[in-house]
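dumping this here so i dont lose it
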């Protein structure tokens, strides 16, 4: 039988025109896809860099150094008389200078124009020996004939201010009995003028009603004398205490309110005090002595809850003795002038000077600083020079952001965030420590809530659960990620928080009973006869927990009532506060942990489950074939191989918790406090930005500090993700052999 040979196979030609066109089109597609992917990656990198650069653009001005520049227009006309007092209005539009002969000279620092000159009607052959600034433009003049004359500066008009002198107690000087022979102290509060004078070894206190002018005080009393003749008198806020400067660095503290109180003498300096002034706001006393020491003092309660004058802060030593001081309450900055003419700019919360310079070469005769616009006047040899202090963010220093600061009206140092001001404190406080603490606290409790449930659930779903059930459970949990965080915050704030406060004992009992009940049920199910256990297919036994969990919850709420009445007098929340000292805030870290944990669980669960399920099955099968139990195969083989993915899931969940805004905004109470108490609230960096950015003024210190918090969040996320990636790569290299 003959066979014919097989025909040769057809020639495969790869160079046909159609094939060439197809290969060329594929190359074009590959290049186009490569270009788009590259542009997309570069776009992401560029977007991140642009965000970083914009944040730096808003934050860098906080680092601007302070400087003092001369105004273009100076007061050319020399002034007459010996300067006794110089001041500026709040906006710095009009300056005033008072001489010993009672001549008032008003001028505009910005234009250098001398507006007008007025003379106070002084008695013949008398001049001004002392002056007490009572506030609100009211000056109490002590005359050489022993009388006093209150004079108030007022300004009429809006754009073109015109100075007007007002005599609230009449144009005639007042004859006080006994007549003052020493320094004066005065303060005005609600149309009440308090005047204190020293005469013949005795301090005298006078009250005048400015709403009913008259030459006779409505009250006159004698005060205890601190045992020395005071060189200067100062009145503290609310006219509560009188401070008297004595020799040898001594200060006398004389209470003005209450009966039976005695004076106190403090040795505040080792050498003679050369600077004895109250900062604007009349709460902090600034002291400087002959050696160049400069310190801040104010009243704080002692162990007996009595207010004592205490040194709060010691500043860097000056080159010579400080002589003059001017400050601004709005940003807690002040200026000192030394005996050698050196001018130093300070922030009240930092011991280091922001600026040191010598503008006039010698000590000026007078100094004035406006509260706003930072206009500065200095007089030397009857010539007034106009300057402007450019320190827009003087209150923002490294110590004010990150160190404990002892602020006025606080009992102890602390980390304080208080961007809004009140009637007694017009200076904001920008400590970032409570915000960082609140951010980490919220993330910690959220991770404590989410991590065990998500990781354990993912392990069971990927390794033990039946595949058919896994295909139903995993999408359901992943759909939880679609719930908006604002909805979770709304439900947690309006429903969960009040519910937890009423049923706190039941919730805590449920947290204790639920894991114990699940373990007991699992142990009991394992001991069941095989004919009962085999009624359910392998991997479906988790369905039985759908009946166990509601039963345990019902039992916890049932038992909580008698347990709470027996152990906690029927009110666990009140018992915690009264007996243990743990306060309970309705919107607290526990609520945040539950709500934010619910938002994090889908991400943690999905990534962890994918990492475990991606481990080749032959690893566990080989371990089981060698005699390992399923749990041993899981802990020795599966989890190490999936550790890189699990760690990535934890870092992504932690980053989500750090950056979460709406849940913490609606649930935490937004109080910037530092308490690890799980029943107290907090304020996070993200929530703080959402709350305060609409209220901040563009370009202000508050505005730029909020951008600084955004930069901190950005850098924190970048650093955490970088460290996480390095650890993940190390874990992958370690377990690559598996």
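and the seq i came up w/
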């Amino acid at each position: 039988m003959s066979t014919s040979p097989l025909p040769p196979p057809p020639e495969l030609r790869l160079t046909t025109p159609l094939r060439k066109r197809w290969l060329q089109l594929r190359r074009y597609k590959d290049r186009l896809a490569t270009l788009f992917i590259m542009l997309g990656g570069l776009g992401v990198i560029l977007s991140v860099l642009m965000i970083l650069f914009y944040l730096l653009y808003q934050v860098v001005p906080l680092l601007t150094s302070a400087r003092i520049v001369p105004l273009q227009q100076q007061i050319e006309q020399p002034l007459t008389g010996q300067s006794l007092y110089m001041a500026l209005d709040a906006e710095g539009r009009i300056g005033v200078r008072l001489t010993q002969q009672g001549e008032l000279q008003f001028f505009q620092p910005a234009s250098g124009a001398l507006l007008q000159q007025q003379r106070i009607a002084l008695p013949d052959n008398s001049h001004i020996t002392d002056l007490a600034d009572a506030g609100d433009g009211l000056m109490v003049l002590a005359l050489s004939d022993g009388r006093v004359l209150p004079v108030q500066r007022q300004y009429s008009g809006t754009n073109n201010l015109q100075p007007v002198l007002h005599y609230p107690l009449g144009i005639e000087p007042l004859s006080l009995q006994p007549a003052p022979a020493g320094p004066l102290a005065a303060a005005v509060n609600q149309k009440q003028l308090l005047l204190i004078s020293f005469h013949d070894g005795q301090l005298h206190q006078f009250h005048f009603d400015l709403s009913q002018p008259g030459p006779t005080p409505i009250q006159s009393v004698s005060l205890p004398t601190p045992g020395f003749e005071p060189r200067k008198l100062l009145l503290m806020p609310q006219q509560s205490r009188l401070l008297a400067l004595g020799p040898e660095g001594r200060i006398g503290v004389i209470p003005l309110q209450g009966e039976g109180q005695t004076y106190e003498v403090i040795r505040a300096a080792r050498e003679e005090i050369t600077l004895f002034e109250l900062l604007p706001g009349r709460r902090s006393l600034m002291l400087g002595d002959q050696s160049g020491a400069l310190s801040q003092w104010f009243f704080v309660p002692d162990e007996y809850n009595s207010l004592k004058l205490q040194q709060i802060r010691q500043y860097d030593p000056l080159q010579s003795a400080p002589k003059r001081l001017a400050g601004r309450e709005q940003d807690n900055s002040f200026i000192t002038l030394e005996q050698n003419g050196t001018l130093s700019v300070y922030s009240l919360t930092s011991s280091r000077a922001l600026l040191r310079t010598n503008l006039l070469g010698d000590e000026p005769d007078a100094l004035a600083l406006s509260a706003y616009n930072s206009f500065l006047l200095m007089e030397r040899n009857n010539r007034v020079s106009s300057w402007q202090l450019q320190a827009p963010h003087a209150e923002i220093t490294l110590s004010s952001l990150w160190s404990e600061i002892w602020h006025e009206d606080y009992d102890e140092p602390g980390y304080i965030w208080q961007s809004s001001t009140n009637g007694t404190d017009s200076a904001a406080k920008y400590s970032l420590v409570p915000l960082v603490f609140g951010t980490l606290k919220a993330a910690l409790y959220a991770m404590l809530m989410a991590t065990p449930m998500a990781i354990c659930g993912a392990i069971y779903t990927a390794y033990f659960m039946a595949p058919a059930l896994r295909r139903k459970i995993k999408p359901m949990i992943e759909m939880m990620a679609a719930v908006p965080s604002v909805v979770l915050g709304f439900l947690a704030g309006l429903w969960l928080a009040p519910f937890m406060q009423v049923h706190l004992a039941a919730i805590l009992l449920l947290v204790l009973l639920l894991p114990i009940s699940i373990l007991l049920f699992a142990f009991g199910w394992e001991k069941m006869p095989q004919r009962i256990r085999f009624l359910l297919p392998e991997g479906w036994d988790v369905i039985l927990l759908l009946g166990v969990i509601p039963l345990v919850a019902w039992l916890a709420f049932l038992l909580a009532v008698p347990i709470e009445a027996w152990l906690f007098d029927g009110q666990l929340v009140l018992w915690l506060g009264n007996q243990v000292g743990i306060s309970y805030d309705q919107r607290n870290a526990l609520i945040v942990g539950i709500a934010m944990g619910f938002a994090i669980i889908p991400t943690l669960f999905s990534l962890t489950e994918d990492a475990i399920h991606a481990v080749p099955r032959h690893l566990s099968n080989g371990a089981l074939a060698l005699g390992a139990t399923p749990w041993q195969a899981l802990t020795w083989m599966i989890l190490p191989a999936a550790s890189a993915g699990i760690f990535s899931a934890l870092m992504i969940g932690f980053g989500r918790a750090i950056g979460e805004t709406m849940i913490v905004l609606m649930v935490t109470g937004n109080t910037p406090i530092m308490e690890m108490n799980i029943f107290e609230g907090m304020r996070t960096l993200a929530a703080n930005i959402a709350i305060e950015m609409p209220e901040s003024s563009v370009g202000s210190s508050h505005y730029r500090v909020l951008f600084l918090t955004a930069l901190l969040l950005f850098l924190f996320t970048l650093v955490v993700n970088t460290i996480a990636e390095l650890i993940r790569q190390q874990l992958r290299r370690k377990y690559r052999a598996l």
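The chain has 15 helices and 30 strands.
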